């Protein structure tokens, strides 16, 4: 894509390593339980035509249970396919002959993702190809590493190399003509916000009180919700719900509110928030509306604390019977997550009544920048979600959150489910991994590249 800038780079080399993620406790969401995983670590070398070069890094868990909930393949098969896909995408970027900005390179390379997905599944003898979300997740550490390398080469933060000075094309090239003359620097902060509230996850089988505890892990971390609130002074709680058991869902929120109210009173906190995540299990927006109405009728304060609803129905927005969200989003913001895989999917979601988006580093730095720009132009609610991202992948997610205007909070649940994988980075940047007053310190995520090496 053009050779118009002295800062344009080509990708000289991409290498990957895989490391297991040990889980402290299982996480249940959308009717599925995760208790192990793999981290994909990417290293990329970029070079200018003048021979300047730099190395960057990106990390992301595979997240196959969330990214590819197959009815045909077993989780170990989808995991195997995504790991293989990451290897092939690394080769794809490494063989890309052109020069450009990282966003431009990714935009061209990702035209091959679909074809590559079919080839990978065929090579493994699988009857189903990686869906678009799984493709983005498997490619995301590589995309991140290239952005990181580019920023390091220029000794600038990755969020400060997005202007006309560095990009050959404006945002209309990636989105549509309403973005003519605009660049991603208009939709990002020059300095990270100093701190962000942390959304703490309450999985569907997580204990709320001591009576719910079946066994305690052999560590000093909190276990019950009350203990977590006291330890981290939490103000934002993300609640995993069933989506197909209305009585259970309503009662779960009311039970959580009872525990939270007692714990917050004990520490003198009067304002806190919930998000409700149905992980696509609702069959209609009417389910969400009734859920909200029932909570409001029984406990108006709990209803007021609900900040937004996350992806209540199927990620398949193009289905003939795709539910319309207008009725629900008239009550609370309804955020698209699993279904957000492209500009086209965002337009479709808006038509169907979604009023917010969940950004995720696991969908790629390039994709996240584009979706963040579009959501801001449309005046949509913005939050950043997690893929149970430990270590460097959590730092990437935090850096993204801290540099996008309007992000309400960042989710970080690896500290609950797989804290061992945080330890190395927590020693380097303790402020990001230590929750105080319900917030994490994001002020230091301003270094070269993605901001935290």
What's the CATH class of the largest domain, please?
Alpha Beta
Segments where pLDDT lies below 50 for 5+ residues?
A: none
Strand content: 15-25%
Structural class: alpha/beta
Under CATH, the topology of the largest domain can be stated as: TIM Barrel
Please write the string of helix (H) and strand (E) elements.
Answer: EEEHHHHHEHEHEHHEHEHEHEHEHHHE
Q: Determine the fraction of residues in helical runs and give it as a percent range.
A: 25-40%
Strand runs, count: 12
Biggest sheet statistics: 8 strands, parallel, barrel
Q: What is the name of the CATH architecture of the largest domain?
A: Alpha-Beta Barrel
Please describe the structure with a list of short key phrases separated by commas or semicolons.
alpha/beta; 3-stranded antiparallel sheet; 12 strands; TIM Barrel; 8-stranded parallel beta barrel; 38% helix; 2 domains; Enolase-like, domain 1; 453 residues
């Amino acid at each position: 894509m053009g050779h118009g800038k002295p800062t344009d780079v080509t990708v000289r080399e991409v290498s990957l390593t895989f490391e297991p993620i040990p889980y402290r406790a299982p996480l249940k969401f959308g009717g599925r339980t995760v208790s192990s995983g793999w981290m994909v670590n990417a290293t990329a070398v970029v070079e200018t035509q003048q021979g300047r070069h730099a190395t960057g890094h990106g990390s992301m868990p595979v997240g196959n249970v969330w990214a590819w909930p197959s009815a045909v393949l077993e989780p170990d098969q989808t995991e195997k396919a995504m790991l293989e896909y990451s290897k092939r995408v690394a080769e794809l970027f490494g063989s890309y002959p052109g020069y450009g900005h990282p966003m431009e390179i990714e935009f061209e390379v990702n035209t091959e993702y679909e074809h590559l997905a079919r080839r990978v599944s065929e090579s493994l003898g699988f009857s189903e190809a990686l869906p678009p979300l799984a493709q983005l997740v498997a490619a995301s550490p590589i995309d991140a590493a290239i952005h990181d390398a580019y920023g390091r080469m220029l000794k600038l933060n990755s969020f400060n190399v997005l202007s006309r000075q560095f990009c050959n094309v404006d945002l209309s090239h990636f989105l549509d003509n309403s973005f003519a003359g605009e660049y991603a620097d208009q939709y990002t902060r020059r300095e990270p916000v100093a701190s962000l509230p942390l959304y703490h996850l309450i999985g569907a089988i997580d204990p709320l009180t001591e009576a719910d505890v079946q066994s305690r892990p052999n560590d000093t971390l909190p276990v019950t919700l009350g203990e977590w609130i006291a330890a981290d002074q939490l103000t934002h709680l993300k609640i995993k719900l069933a989506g197909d058991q209305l009585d259970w869902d309503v009662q779960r929120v009311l039970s959580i509110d009872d525990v939270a109210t007692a714990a917050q009173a004990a520490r003198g906190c009067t304002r806190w928030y919930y998000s409700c995540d149905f992980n696509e299990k609702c069959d209609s927006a009417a389910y969400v509306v009734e859920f909200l109405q029932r909570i409001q009728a029984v406990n108006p304060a709990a209803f007021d604390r609900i900040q937004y609803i996350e992806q209540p129905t199927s990620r398949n927005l193009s289905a003939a019977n795709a539910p319309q969200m207008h009725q629900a989003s008239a009550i609370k913001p309804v955020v698209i997550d699993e279904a957000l895989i492209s500009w086209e999917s965002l337009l479709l979601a808006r038509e169907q009544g979604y009023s917010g988006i969940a950004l995720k580093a696991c969908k790629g730095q390039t994709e996240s920048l584009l979706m963040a720009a579009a959501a801001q132009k449309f005046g949509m609610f913005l939050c950043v979600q997690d893929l149970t991202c430990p270590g460097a992948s959590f730092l990437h997610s935090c850096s993204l959150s801290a540099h996008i205007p309007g992000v309400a909070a960042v989710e970080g649940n690896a500290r609950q489910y797989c804290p061992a994988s945080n330890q190395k980075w927590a020693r380097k940047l303790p402020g990001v991994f230590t929750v105080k007053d319900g917030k994490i310190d994001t002020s230091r995520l301003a270094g070269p590249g993605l901001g935290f090496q």
